[in-house]
Amino acid sequence: MPIASSEKSVCSDPTDTRTNNVTKEIAIRSILKTGMFVLMLAAAPIAAQAGTLEGVAIGAGSGAIIAGPPGAVVGGVIGGVVGGPNVVHRHRHCWINDNGYRHCGWR
Description:
This protein is mainly α. It has a two-stranded antiparallel sheet with strand order 1-2. Helix 2 (50-67) runs antiparallel to helix 3 (69-82). Helix content is 63%, strand content 9%. The protein starts with 13 loop residues before the first helix and ends with a strand. The mean pLDDT is 78. It has helices at residues 14-48, 50-67, 69-82, and strands spanning 92-96, 102-106. It is built from three helices and two strands, in the order αααββ. It has one domain (15-106).
């Protein structure tokens, strides 16, 4: 039954609401993907300085255990200057098989 021009519907068109929700969902997903990409690019230089960060973490942790908050600060600074252990050991290993083909792998 059509609604008369003097009567107004309490509910809006359900298809309009569904389209609006899909548009918002696409916008939110795009913003999240962009944010994750920016964080990934920002974390790349930090990963390159892994020894320094490990030193800060180890120094701050041991300083906090020994002397509390002031020890954490001092230990973090000293750990950053001295550096930490190089935990990542990746060496390229190449060999030539019986057929004369060169193969390389990471160890």
